[in-house]
Amino acid sequence: MDLFKKCDYERLKQVREKGIYPWFHVLESRQAPVVQMEGKRMIMLGSNNYLGLAEDERVIAAGHEALEKYGSGVSGSRFLNGTLDLHLQLEHALAEFTGYEDAMTCSTGFQTNLAIISAICGKDDYILSDRENHASIYDACRLTFAKMLRYRHSDMNDLERQLQSVPDDAGKLIVTDGVFSMRGDICCLPEICALAKKYGARVMVDDAHGLGVIGPGGRGTAHHFGLASEVDILMGTFSKSLASLGGYVAASRTVVDFLRHASAPFIFSASIPPASAAVALAALRHLRRHPELPTHLREVSDYARKVFVQHGIPLKPGAETNLAPILPIVIGGTQETLVVAKRAYEGGVFTNPFIPPGVPEGGGLLRTSVTATHTPALIDEAAGILAEALKC
Questions:
Q1: How would you classify residue 19: left for phi > 0, otherwise alpha for psi between -120 and 50, otherwise beta?
Q2: Tens of pLDDT along 105-135?
Q3: Among 63, 19, 22, 15, which residue's Cα sits nearest to residue 46?
Q4: What does pTM read for this prediction?
């Protein structure tokens, strides 16, 4: 069979022929509650700019200043010529904010999970992963020779059953999203930590959607539960609340030092450009000075949930009480999901449609999210448009 046969993607052709292709819409303005997209005004309900800092002039100014001082890029890896004092400042600030001894930055969030898991886990180790963890965790597990055991989403009985099947003398890593990006629910961290202690496992939390969102001052999932001392490895990104690009790992000084010298995805990648590092640092400092921001974000998301329910918009079960600003709307069939997404877009609301294999068959949904800068008037307007789109 020709190697390129798989590139003739039939489902993609069908979606395009039906005029319901929903991806790669072109943004022509800043990330904001209202954007310009392909020549029209659009209420943005598909961004992870949770705190609205991607449009904050002070944060943007920090990027400009770094561009002038350091240039446009570093032209090398952190391991060789690509470490700036700016990277070290950012890592120190992250470690201090999250409460860990040390931190290390990577060029993207996706790469960060690859960097951590591929270095920490080897052929005699076991990785226990929530079935709804981010795709980067799945790919990271494939980079190792470790045995991956998936447990049912937030099912602690299933996690314990899986742990019981692992040899006592094997290395064990339990890895979970802190806030799950599709549902917006929070992991069962107290139970995970208790099971880790019982079975001699280490705990890693991917807090990409938790930092800036939950926990005291936005410090994330571990602090939300008061369990920062029991989470061995914390991972996060800059592309959500911190309005930039990149990722980080926070852990003990020993673990971070090991990763700096043993992680191929880190060693062989160019480091974060100066402007991106400066923006992430400025956003983190802004969050630290304004610990009320996550509280305001929660108020906005609570309002959105209330309005969506009033309009009869079918949120995924449990989403009515979530703490995160993620509001998944249940649709069902693949074509139906794409049609509703198109109708919403035509009405002036951008959402993110998810269809199989990203979700189970029949589980198509629209992932909507709000930011701290959405106003009640915008949420009311968007809910009305979504309610109309759902009538198709």
A1: left
A2: 999 999 999 999 999 999 999 999 999 999 9
A3: 22
A4: 0.96
